[in-house]
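Residues pack. Consider this:
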Amino acid sequence: MPHLRLVLILLFIILNTISVLAQDKPFNVVNITPDGSKYIKFGMNLQVWGRYTELNPNSKIGTTEVNDAYDIVIRRLRLQAMGMLTDNIFFHLQLGQNNINFTQNNGPSNAPLSVMDALGEYHFSDKLHIGGGLTSWGSGTTRYSSNSSATQLSLDTPMYQQIANTSSTFGNRNLSIYAKGYLGDLSYRIAVTNPYRNTANNIGFNSTVSPETPRAQFAGILTYHFLEKEQNLEAYNRGTYLGTKKVFNLGLGYMTQANAMWRLDTSGSGVVHHDDMKVLGLDVFYDSPIGDNGSAITAYAAYNNAQYGKNYTQFIAIPNPAIADPALLNGSGNGFIGVGTGNIYYAQVGYLFKNSDNVAKKGRFQPYIAAQVADLEALNTPMAMYEIGANYYTTGTFGPKFSLNYQNRAVYDKSVLNPEYTQSDRLGMVVLQCQVSF
């Protein structure tokens, strides 16, 4: 009987979809009122990677130390529903999973769908929306602290902007109460977050995340929209508009949490020092069509000043093809030191080629380049990570696309004679992605 019910449900969905398509309406939107002002919208995003990675020194897969690896990854899976239930009440529910690969020896059954977003908000006016729940509205200080994964320009979002929040949880969501809105051409988002407690007690002479009861976290971003305004219904910012909008934004953000970090006094007395987490962000985003032939440019640049206390560093290894080993300086697998106390710079630019003169050929190419430079207190020289790649949109618009990306990252080492982190090598990673979304 359970299988019969499932078949009937799928049949209903298919018939309903055909019916809606026959009416020339979006198949993923159900209107509650005839004018469409109250609705429920459904969405899905699936990203599958085929990847080759040069692994960091001392990385292991199983019990074997290896230099490189091939793997297949489900980078992201998203299933969501959102909508306006009344004139004032909006909801957003999203289930998903990240980074399913062969390191999960028992298969994806060990990685069930998790609740990623669960929020409700009340709209007093365009100037003030107040909401709360599990959300990204209070995460980070720059644009891609909350990114729209289905519309990214580069293969992946600049993950350092999310990992910079040391107490964020799965997928950079937090339990927050927030306010947002538009004041003329200025949009704002502010939030108070109940941070997750760190469960690892790894105190040392350098600053690490404290496992003590966390204090409240405060974050906010102000964005000035010089040209067209962007949506503020969802927390997630687009990576590219494919020439459908003309956007030029300047953003300023700040995030702080008292006593988020701790470390031992270097005298050996056992005295524990606490440091506040303070992150400042400044970024600029530009997206515009070029002429009237469908070509477009997308450009983004960001600066972060991050203060986590003495010599704090954190590596980025997403998704990791090797056994996670936090004892390794760069992290295992494809990790690189991308977050820490100091200054972090990032930039990306992409060009969308014009529409084909052949109407039957709808596919379009969008090559891009990106780079991150982390000038951190603990590093002898700044860490630099570079990417080059291209997107191919099979229908010419958002939806199914293929991406090919090459990433080159700096690897660091240190010794007793040279206790500073010094660059010792550069390693690469090649990824072919297939994305299906609506």
